[in-house]
Amino acid sequence: MRVRPATEADNEKLIAIEQLTPQGGQIQLVSERKDYLFRAKKFADPIFLLAEDEEEDLILGIMGVGPVAVKLNGETRRGGLVFDWRSNPLAQKGLPRHMFRLWQAAHKEVVNRDLDFLFGYVKEDNDRSMGIITRYGAQIVESKDFLTIPVHAPFCLRRKEVAKVAFTASPNEEQEWQSTAAHFGSLDLFPDWSQRQATREQRERYLFGRFNYGGSSVKVWDTSEEYTNRVLNIPRIFKVIRPLFRIGSKVLPLPHIPNLGEEIKVWQLFDLVLDQPGDLNPLLEKVRQAAVKKGIHYLVIALSPEDPTYEPVAKKAWVRPRYNLFAMPLKEGVPLPNPPTYMDVSYL
Hints:
Low-confidence stretches: none
Shape: globular
CATH topology of the largest domain: Aminopeptidase
CATH architecture of the largest domain: 3-Layer(aba) Sandwich
Number of strands: 15
Strand order of the largest sheet: 1-3-4-5-6-15-7-14-13-10-9-8
Mean pLDDT: 87
């Protein structure tokens, strides 16, 4: 077994591994990327490693770390976001040693680049990965729920109010930064301006736009052309009730029941600001109308229960997969992030 940097030549094998790890319970979805490395390409000088069995020509596991500049306890720190850390299900079961080898190799690269701390998001039920990172000293500091909202039924029937929601496809860079920093700049893990400059190309590519309603606003991140979910399995009962859900979803916020093999597309909402609680419905309705036109099935926003906007949004969510935010200081005196933290949508 050896650990080496992943290259473009590994793309097809990596995509095949992802297709072997479907998500979900009764309805199973498999993630599909047109380019497996597209997440790594969001970072300047990323660490992206794979462990492979040379004799069997088999990739055993993958791990990426993206260097980022973020705020931590009021200071700018160099962090490393752990992403795409997974094991090939065709490899050995249990707690494979190649996952430890990947962690050790990545940790060595991180130290060489003088990063201050590591952090990342791991699904709450992923005991394997959590066991490895806590063994090496990482701690869970917060949870984020990916609140998933269907887009069929209207959120607001007051057409005059919905008509007041303004849409800006390309917000002014400086004004957007000042507004975002005013609302979220005090939170740990908020990106430093230098980091924002590094991700400008990503924002230009994936930022659908900003919706405003008075003093309230939300932005939309659209990677649906790069990353979708395909349906692998649907229970028979779901096929039977699909027509009823299709009719009922016109008036109730029922989920979309897909056909076998169908692609499910989502929009990520982020930087939600609510001046008044009642602003949420017209704001979401305008987003919903735009999503339907684009063939989007769900809106997803990642919030922690400590976020002030969590409760009103959570009431509209059909499912709430939970991810744990872990962090591990690498230098003396570097603190753990203090929740609620900022979640940069470009990490997704």
